[in-house]
Structure formats: C-alpha cells, structure tokens
Amino acid sequence: MEWTGRAARYLRMVLPAGGTLSDGERRQRHHAILWLLWLHVPALVIFSLWMGNDLLHSLTEAAARENRAVVAATVRFDSLPRPIIDGRQTGFCKLVVDRELHTIVGCHVVGERAVELAQLAATAMAAKMPVEELALVPFSFPTYANALGRAAILAAIELDHTGMWAVDHLGTAVEAGVA
C-alpha cells in the first residue's frame, strides 16, 4: 500500500510541528476538516446498508417523515454555555424521534465535538432507549454533550400529550444538573 505511505508523508509535511497557527492557516485547516467530515456521510449510508440496516436507518429527517411520524428537536450551540465559553457557538444538535415508539431514529450534529455527540446518540439508538430516558441522563456541565440532553428534553416535552412530563421530571432534573 504505497499510497498510504505517501499520504502519511504528505500529512507530516502539512501538519504543524507545534506552536500556534495563524488565523488563515487555522481557517484553511478547519474547512478541510469539515470537508472530510461531510465526505463520511455517503460512506456511512453505504456502510449502514452493508451491515443490513434498512435505508430509513441511514436517511434524513425528511425521509423519516415519509415513512413514520417523527418529532424533531433542535438545540443551537449558541444557547449553550460550553460553546459560548469556547467561542465556538456555530452549530446545532438535532434529534429525530419516532412519535409512536419514542426512540431516536436519527441525530444530526454540526459543529464542535460533532462526532462525540453523534456517538452518544448512536449508543442510545442501539439500546433503543426512549428519548424520555435519555432526557434524564445527568450529562456533565458545561459540556457539548449537554446539547444532546437538552434536545432529548425538548423531544420528550413535545411527545408528552398530558403536558405533565416536564412537571414530573424537570424539577428533579434541574436539581441533578441535567436541565
């Protein structure tokens, strides 16, 4: 695999040996990383199909809405303390939840720590965890993961037909530092 050796040499050449990057270099590398992340999208769909998942498992919120009733809950990073502290407010976390089963059928994350948030959501999806349970997980604070917890809380509130879920659970969640 000669191409891997060439790729490794190229990366060693373009990556910094230490120190601080100029704003232009940081911006250029940030854009390159975003492109690499977006290139993973078709690869993930193909991998999901190859692993035997149905197409719905790999599609967008719009595709999920065509096949089932869903709720989408979005939390913007500019409303969360950790991204504000880090000066990285651009981004969001969106959960797509099956209205009947209350399980997560999709998660979209754009911004800092996107991979980590998506992995947390994937774990909840694999466990078929109801969104109400995810909403009560005590995420550390302040963290980017808090976006996932808050999106789960919004989805749980929207799925609650009695209007009592928030009353019954958020008082204890605030005390525990979840909400």
Description:
It is a single chain. The chain has 179 residues and is α+β, with helices and mostly antiparallel strands. The chain has two domains: 22-58; 64-176, FAD/NAD-linked reductase, C-terminal dimerisation domain (Enolase-like, domain 1, 2-Layer Sandwich), CATH 3.30.390. Helices cover 55% and strands 13% of the residues. The protein has helices at 2-14, 23-50, 61-67, 81-86, 114-126, 131-135, 146-159, 165-176, and strands at 70-76, 91-98, 104-111. The protein has a three-stranded antiparallel sheet, sandwiched between helices. Mean pLDDT is 81; it is low at 173-179.
Provide a compact summary of the structure:
The protein is α+β, with helices and mostly antiparallel strands and 179 residues long. The protein is 55% helix and 13% strand.
Key traits:
179 residues, alpha+beta, Enolase-like, domain 1, 3-stranded antiparallel sheet, 8 helices, globular, disordered C terminus
